[in-house]
C-alpha cells in the first residue's frame, strides 16, 4: 500500500506530462489505470470505515434486552470496541479514504489532463 501511494502520484503526473507534450496515448492509459487502482484502494478503505461504524449502530438497535448476562456483557464489549473505526493505512501517508484519493488526484495533475482532453475534444468537434 505504501509503495502504491508513493508511486501513484508520480506515475499519474508523468502520464499527464507525456500526454500533454506528445499526445502519447499509452501514457494516458497508464495514468488512468493507476488512478483507477488508487480509487479502488481508497474506496475500500472508506467502505471499511463506514461499515465498522455501522456495526455498533446495528448492534445497539438489536433486541438484546432479553439475552442472558454473559451475552449482554459480550454485546457491551463489542459496543465499546465499535467506537473506534477500523482504517486501512498506507504507512506515513495516512488513512486510505476519499479525501486521500482527492489529494493524490489533485497533486498528480489529473485535473490538467481533464482540461487537455476537453480542449482536444472541442478542437476535434470544431474541425469537423
UniProtKB/TrEMBL annotation:
Chief localisation class: membrane
InterPro entries attached to this UniProt entry: 7tm6_olfct_rcpt
Keywords: Cell membrane, Membrane, Olfaction, Receptor, Sensory transduction, Transducer, Transmembrane, Transmembrane helix
Gene Ontology CC terms: plasma membrane
GO MF, one example: odorant binding
Membrane topology, from the record: Multi-pass membrane protein
Keyword Transmembrane: yes
GO-annotated biological processes: signal transduction
Pfam families, sorted: 7tm_6
Compartment(s) of residence: Cell membrane
UniProt entry tagged with the keyword Transmembrane: yes
Protein name as annotated: Odorant receptor
Species annotation: Phaedon cochleariae
Amino acid at each position: 500500500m505504501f509503495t502504491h501511494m508513493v508511486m501513484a502520484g508520480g506515475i499519474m503526473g508523468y502520464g499527464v506530462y507525456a500526454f500533454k507534450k506528445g499526445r502519447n496515448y499509452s501514457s494516458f492509459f497508464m495514468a488512468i489505470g493507476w488512478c483507477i487502482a488508487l480509487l479502488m484502494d481508497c474506496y475500500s478503505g472508506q467502505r471499511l470505515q463506514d461499515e465498522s461504524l455501522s456495526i455498533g449502530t446495528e448492534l445497539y438497535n438489536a433486541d438484546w434486552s432479553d439475552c442472558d448476562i454473559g451475552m449482554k456483557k459480550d454485546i457491551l464489549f463489542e459496543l465499546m470496541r465499535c467506537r473506534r473505526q477500523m482504517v486501512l493505512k498506507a504507512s506515513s501517508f495516512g488513512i486510505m479514504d476519499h479525501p486521500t484519493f482527492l489529494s493524490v488526484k489533485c497533486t498528480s495533475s489529473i485535473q490538467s489532463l481533464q482540461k487537455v482532453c476537453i480542449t482536444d475534444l472541442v478542437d476535434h468537434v470544431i474541425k469537423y
